[in-house]
Amino acid sequence: MKIITLAAIGVALSFSTSASAQTVEMIVPFSAGGGTDSVARVFEPGFSEALGQTTVIRNVAGASGTIGAAATADAANDGSTIGYLPIGPLAIQPSLRKTSYNADSFSYICQTTSTPVFLLEKKGSEMKSVKQWVERGKAKRIVYGSSGPGTIPHLAMAAFAATAGLKAVHLPFKGTGPAMNAMAGGEIDLFADTATVLEGNDVTALAVFAPERLKTYPDIPTMKELGYDLDFSVWQGLVAPKGLPKDLQQKYAEACQKAIATDRFKSLAEKTNTGIKYRGPDAFEAFVAENTKKNRKILAEAGLVK
Amino acid sequence: MVDLTFLADVWAPATVVAMIVGTALGIIIGALPGLGSVVGLSICLPFTFGMDTVPSLALLLGVYCGSVYGGSISAILINSPGTPQSAATVLDGYPMALQGLAGKALGWSTASSVAGGLISCIVLIVAAPQLAHFATRFGSIEVFALILMALTCIAAVSRGSMLKGLSMGSAGIFLSLIGTDPVTGAARFTFGIQFFTAGLDLISVVIGLFAVSEAFTRLAQDGKNESVFSGVRLMLPSLSEWKGRIGNLLRSSAIGCFIGALPGTGAATAAFISYATAKQLSPRRDNFGKGEPDGVIAAESSNNAVTGSAMIPTLALGIPGDVVTAIVLSAMVVHGITPGVRLMSEHLDVVNAIFAVLVIINILMLILAFPIVRLFGKLLAIPESYVMTGVIVFSLIGAITVRGNALDGVVAVAFGVFGYALRRGGYPLAPFVIGLVLGPQFEENLRRGLLLSDGDILSFPTHSWIALVLFLVTAGLILFGPLQTLISGRFARSETARLSREP
């Protein structure tokens, strides 16, 4: 019984959410081990060190990250709680469904990453270019997949289909893995995702949804060059509940800038093909507002928002 | 001549330690309700950053395989599956424990887990590329047909009243609809409460239905019964006891191997499909749900068979089938190995090491199971009131751990009350869980199939040969029962008629 009691107390204590003045709690809105979490866990040591305070990551998963984002928005704005949020819960989900928060519910600290997505097709396909796909898509129906409704792969493809005037059907999957299986089996024709997905699967990149060609992929044309001015990337950043004191906001932003400049963070970014992108508090806030508006428009065109 | 240099990596002290620690940790984490494979892997992932490639993969695979097996320990001893994968093990494992056969039940689950795991290793080593390519032919419509077939197993596990079983299955499917629409992303059946937009967490519901309601049931009996747990020791089944059960073991392992190779399905689904198949085919089918070893064998061999075959799409195509394999893949990325279609040709040494490590881990599981089961047996060999208090505390902490949301504890208690009411009313719990597990996949694949066929569900059977075969088998399974009753009924009537004519 003693062991059970002790273990129970131990586990229960680790759940105590009360943060002491010395500890900053960093909410990650996805499960431990996921894409956002693995970046956050490499970001955290550098951030803690630069700040001179202990930062503890708490995973609050569920509902495409909106539960964790809501927990961040609802926390005390004294700097004891911050959130490491990606694009989905910050700039897409509030348009897609009723959330208790929106982009205005946060004080923005910094953007950390920005990773552009590629237009992908099955390797060995007889279609060799975006132009061929556009011709096919105007003549008959094409099918594109996504890792779920309202994800960046979905939005990028929906925007492409709308801009190019394609007859396209969207098949949402639970995550990238099952979607890649569907692509291997020929169920979907096109998919949009980051370089990690491009490298790990039997797929070819036809174009990149970025304003300029990437240094790492100089041969892959941009959508803009091909006549479609489309810019889509997966990004992450640090936010706090609205009303974070200005001095703390500045202090956190400086620590954030140092954290993403550490070798540890840079080497992870290189290994996972993640683009490092720093934006300060004001620039990040303006970027999120603008990005939210853009995504909302695409969702409305796709019929997902009234 | 096969290049055996990878064996040097496998027998390196770091790898051996990683395998032992990983497997032991996995079994313990799996046995604690709420802490499943994903949590265990996430805990270990940061440690692998400082380790070499093969030891870090050995640690992660040990945790993975160990946790899938470990879930059966709590499923059998406290009626609460430690992981969702062992939800089907509860159905016969716990009744066996109640009959005082806990050690035996654990023996069956251990032997079946190890056998299932080893069989899937062989399949992985021998047929990974072929099976991976066959699995890609399962599109949305084919998987829909497969899940539909699996749902007919609700009928098979409906003990007593078919009506009660079917209504529980439907209730499970309906509850699985709570949350986010898979196609539009809209929130539905949430009553405007944000918590529900994430859907009900399977493990919280299962913990409530089985473990919490069990505690309520004991409470209602006023503590008169003896503790069934005292001095539990693992007892492996003898060879003669395997007689007549090997077919079940091989069939269930094969089902696990195949389901595991399909991305996005998983061990819980495999366990229920095997359980239902065994329930249809076992000569001891009438004893299912009352503590039949065949039920434990079916569930445990197939969920552990998933561990090896889940690596098939991961290694052969670079497609992680679930969160678990995605974490293993991310560990490879950290070590500079690009997973994917070129993995087998570019890093054959790593792939071979993974094969060897998987085989060793499954054998280690057999050895480590003994001390760990004794440890749990000791923990539970205390007065029942303490055990039940501990079960409730642990279960609720487990439920809350999964997503870090305290409301999941409330869900577990609510389902504890619901489960208690169902038990009192003689409603079977198994169909409910099956509906809840298979519901989301049933819906997703149906919806995608309808998008592909422009809403024409009648075109599904002609979509491909695989789909046609699966739909025909499903129809056969549905008609088999009633036809059997009809025929045997006629036979009985004519028999009576014949007898009554004879003087």
Automatic annotation (TrEMBL), chain A:
Keywords: Signal. Belongs to the UPF0065 (bug) family. Residues 1-21 form the signal peptide. CDD domains: PBP2_Bug_TTT. Gene3D superfamilies: Bordetella uptake gene, domain 1 (3.40.190.150), Periplasmic binding protein-like II (3.40.190.10). PANTHER family: BLR1237 PROTEIN (PTHR42928:SF5), TRICARBOXYLATE-BINDING PROTEIN (PTHR42928). It comes from Jiella flava. InterPro entries: BUG (IPR005064), Bug_dom1 (IPR042100). The lineage of its organism: Bacteria, Pseudomonadati, Pseudomonadota, Alphaproteobacteria, Hyphomicrobiales. This is Tripartite tricarboxylate transporter substrate binding protein.
TrEMBL record, chain B:
InterPro entries: DUF112_TM (IPR002823). Residues 17-434 form the DUF112 domain. Coiled coil: none annotated. Keywords: Membrane, Transmembrane, Transmembrane helix. It holds the Pfam family TctA. The chain crosses the membrane at residues 12-45, 57-78, 105-126, 138-158, 191-212, 253-276, 315-338, 350-373, 385-418, 425-442, 462-483. The keyword Cell membrane does not apply. The keyword Cell inner membrane does not apply. This is Tripartite tricarboxylate transporter permease.
